[in-house]
Design a protein that fits this description.
single chain, 94 residues, four-stranded antiparallel sheet, 3 helices, globular, metal-binding
């Protein structure tokens, strides 16, 4: 079952940060510069995290993934220009 995930990262290298952002944007919506909302199956999320880790320096960079069940997500307060529509078309990186 696909679940909503909040994915945030802090990556120093500009090229690696761009590659991570592209992969995340292919799966969801950017809500802040380094924060994405992604609705994805657990197995796909695990694969995505493995791909992202290839572009991280674990001595300097960080990644956090917070899985949200539907009940928890229904209590989220979204203000301003945040769009959490998981059905919105997204860019795909080939």
């Amino acid at each position: 079952m696909a679940m909503m995930n909040i994915v945030a990262y802090d990556v120093q290298n500009n090229n690696n940060r761009a590659k991570i952002a592209a992969r995340l944007q292919a799966h969801g919506n950017r809500i802040q510069r380094s924060v994405f909302l992604i609705t994805i199956e657990r197995s796909e999320l695990d694969t995505l995290i493995e791909q992202i880790e290839q572009f991280m320096d674990h001595n300097h960079d960080s990644l956090i993934v917070i899985r949200q069940c539907q009940t928890c997500w229904s209590h989220a307060q979204l203000k301003g220009q945040i769009d959490d529509d998981p059905d919105e078309l997204c860019w795909t990186v080939m």
